[in-house]
Amino acid sequence: PSVPVLVLAGTEDRHALPADVERLSAALGARARTLVIRGGGHLSLRAADRRAHDAALLALLEPLRRPSDER
User: Fold this and answer.
1) Rounded to 5 degrees, what are φ and ψ at 46?
2) What is the rounded distance in angstroms from the CA atom of residue 26 to the CA atom of residue 40?
3) Are 42 and 15 in contact (CB under 8 A)?
4) Which pTM value belongs to this model?
5) CB atoms within 10 A of CB 71
6) Which of the 8 DSSP states describes residue 49?
7) DSSP code at position 17
């Protein structure tokens, strides 16, 4: 089965450069979602944009949610 993948990077990331992230996403194909967070470093993505970071994670996990998970 195809597993969804979220590829995260930041514009200030010196380890995962935007071009590398785009190549990785392209190699993963349609199952990959990519988010590049403006101002985010390798370990500071959520701090740079908590709303975008959390929304991307929730969108990735939403299809896995069971009806019994509703609160």
Assistant:
1) -65, -40
2) 21
3) yes
4) 0.80
5) 3
6) -
7) -
